[in-house]
Specification:
The chain has about 180 residues and is α+β, with helices and mostly antiparallel strands. The protein is about 60% helix and about 10% strand. The chain has 7 helices and 4 strands. Strands 1, 2, 3 and 4 form a 4-stranded antiparallel β-sheet that branches.
Length: about 180
C-alpha cells in the first residue's frame, strides 16, 4: 500500500462522517477523552502524537466500536516518526489498554464493506477503551490536581520555615557577634 492509499483510508472515514445520520461519539468527545488520558497517564510526546493521529482518523460513524484503520506508513508520514517507532508506540498504547488491536488474517488494516458500500466491520485499532474510561481519566486528573495543591502548600510551608530560620540565625548573629 503506498502513501496515497494509506492516506485515503483515513480520509475515507472523514467522508463517511459527512453523510449525515445519527452519530454516536463525536471526534471532539473522543479527542477530549484522549487528551485527558494523555495527561492522566503522563504519556510521552511521541505516544501523544500517535494517539492523537489515531483519534483524528475517527470518522464518527454510527457503530458499536470506535474503529480506525490507518497504516503504519500513514501514521509515520503524519507524525514524522519512523515505522519501527510507530510499531513500538502502538504496542505501548495497547499495553496501556488505550487501544485494542483488531488484526486481520493477513495483518492488514482495512474496512469490510457490504454490497451497498457501507462499512460493516474493520480491522485496525479500536479506540473504545479511551472513550469508555473517560470517567477514570477525569478522576485521575482530579487526584493529580489535589496532589499538586498539596505539594504546593508543602513547598510554601518549607519556604516560610526556611525564611524564619534565616531571620532567627541573622538575629542571633547580631546579638552574639563572633
Amino acid at each position: 500500500m503506498d502513501r496515497r492509499q494509506a492516506a485515503g483510508s483515513c480520509r475515507f472515514g472523514r467522508k463517511e462522517a459527512c453523510r449525515g445520520g445519527a452519530r454516536t461519539v463525536t471526534r471532539k468527545e473522543l479527542s477530549a477523552a484522549a487528551r485527558n488520558a494523555e495527561k492522566a497517564l503522563s504519556l510521552r510526546p511521541a505516544q501523544r502524537l500517535v494517539l492523537s493521529e489515531l483519534v483524528a482518523c475517527w470518522a464518527e460513524q454510527e457503530r458499536e466500536k470506535l474503529l480506525v484503520w490507518p497504516s503504519n506508513d500513514y501514521l509515520a508520514s503524519r507524525t514524522g516518526l519512523n515505522e519501527r517507532s510507530i510499531r513500538r508506540i502502538l504496542a505501548q498504547l495497547t499495553e496501556l489498554k488505550l487501544i485494542v488491536a483488531k488484526d486481520s488474517p493477513n495483518g492488514k488494516r482495512l474496512a469490510i464493506r457490504d454490497l451497498a458500500g457501507d462499512i460493516i466491520d474493520a480491522y485496525g485499532f479500536e479506540l473504545t477503551p479511551v472513550y469508555a474510561r473517560r470517567g477514570e481519566w477525569t478522576a485521575m486528573l482530579a487526584e493529580l490536581k489535589v496532589m499538586r495543591e498539596i505539594r504546593k502548600r508543602a513547598y510554601d510551608e518549607v519556604t516560610v520555615a526556611r525564611r524564619a530560620a534565616e531571620e532567627a540565625v541573622s538575629a542571633l548573629a547580631q546579638h552574639f557577634p563572633a
